[in-house]
Amino acid sequence: MRNKIERLLACILPMGIPFAWRQLSIEKKRLLAAIAGVSFGAIIMTFQLEIFNAAMLMSVRPLMALKGQLVMVDRNYEYFLSNVTFTRRRLYQAKAVPGVKNVFPLYTALAPMRNPVTHMYKMVFVMGINPDANPFTFPAVKKNLELLKDPENILFDALSRSDFGPIPALFKKYGSVGTEIAGKKVRVAGLFHMGQTLAVTGHVITSYEGLCRIQPGRDPGMINVGLISLQPGADPEETARRITRVIPDDVEIISRHEFIHREQAYWKKRTPIGFITVASMFVAMVVGAVVVYQILYTDITDHLSEYATLKAIGYKDRFFLQLILTQSLILLALSMIPFLPIIVALNYVTQYLAGLPAHLSATEFALVFLVATLMCSAAGLLATRRLRTADPADIF
Description:
Order of helices and strands: HHHHEEHEEHEHEEEHEEHEHHHHHHH
Strand content: 15-25%
Radius of gyration: 30 Å
Structural class: alpha+beta
Helix content: 40-55%
Number of domains: 2
Number of strands: 11
Shape: elongated
């Protein structure tokens, strides 16, 4: 067993790590430049992937807080902010289907909200609910349902941007905040915590009567989204088929998972987010690979006569290939030293200063590490091309 391990190490690390390390560490500035290049590529790839994850999470924040296993939407529905409505009658028709426990209508609209301090207006996303059929899982909404029965009362998202004014601070100080939405006086009677989305930076919740008050021409019988909760043990797919069979086809019944997936797919495909993420990661990978290639190629050129001597006395191309790949992996390992503190600092800035929920799963981090490994290995393979084709007789 010991002999097998020794043979494996000899294959992977010809002459051991010290030989590869000595080759790299002779030129300190060159080594630092290589580490910086690999770290840069890994940091950009990781950070871009984290920003992409944050964007996908932000895009579905309201959807994640909704009740129900099934969702009813209009056939022309695209994404959560689209102003597509359907008759509330369809939702109550679905309630009569076996397996359905309860239904929750949801009304949505965009409207200008006045900053109570500066009196400037900014668009806020208004979500209207039936206080007797609350579709949200927020504890603060459940706690303040009675207050929402007054059409002038609203609940304000405390994690909205500061452009809407210091509403959370004013509410904690006075117990309520008066302002306007679409020219109608409203009163902030409570706070809930959700956060910004990709489309809007502020959210309020009111009753459907309050929403119709803000938009006087709106038909209260037309809703934007319908949430359907099921009886314990009811199969979501079978119940969805039953509902589809008994109601007209002007609406669509989808699972909550599909509802969330469609929203994320919309922002991935219909906006530049997905392309920018992939392009940035590719550029970072190329930059890192070019830096590693230049460093290793220069190192080979500087020691070409020594390598030629080794070739002349019988060392095969495999030896040099393993040597350069070992140097590539050493550079990758050393790049983790600046990588970790920098990525932690970027995460802090992103989460606590920019308000973006940047995160990376263990699988995604492993993917970035694998890509970085392939980047360094590919650069090392390219760098050995001149050495593999070199004739010792020509060099001497």
